[in-house]
């Protein structure tokens, strides 16, 4: 998946990962290759693209992750250990 596709899906216009709606997530997951879907199913996460939002100093790797509570979400490695965390779980969003 390339950055132009990600931008077209509305990922680049979101101010935070919490603002990515269900239709955008469905479009991103639908655009994954069969191999990426298999990796997502086995590992629970799959690399999507290198993305940089306005104001960021460099691009970060973005992943589609499968959260047991919120379903598919977009995340990037966080913290010293670079762990993938569901942004909705992190912010305490209920749905």
Alpha-beta content class: alpha+beta
Tally of individual helices: 4
Number of strands: 3
In the predicted model, the low-confidence regions spanning at least 5 consecutive residues are none
Q: Cα distance, first to last residue?
A: 27 Å
Shape: globular
Main sheet: strands, sense, barrel:
3 strands, antiparallel
Oligomer: single chain
Average of per-residue pLDDT values = 80
Question: What share of the residues lie within helices?
Answer: 25-40%
Describe it.
The structure is a single chain. Helices cover 32% and strands 21% of the residues. It is α+β, with helices and mostly antiparallel strands and 95 residues long. It has one domain. The chain has a three-stranded antiparallel beta sheet with strand order 1-2-3. The longest helix is centred in the middle third of the chain and has 10 residues, at 34-43. The protein is globular and about 35 Å long. The N and C termini lie far apart (27 Å). The relative contact order is 0.17.
In short:
The chain is of the alpha+beta class and 95 residues long. It has helices at 3-8, 22-30, 34-43, 87-91; strands spanning 45-51, 60-67, 71-75.
Keywords summarizing the entry:
95 residues; alpha+beta; 4 helices; 32% helix
In terms of topology, how is this protein built?
Layout: H1 3-8, H2 22-30, H3 34-43, E1 45-51, E2 60-67, E3 71-75, H4 87-91
Antiparallel strand pairs: 1-2, 2-3
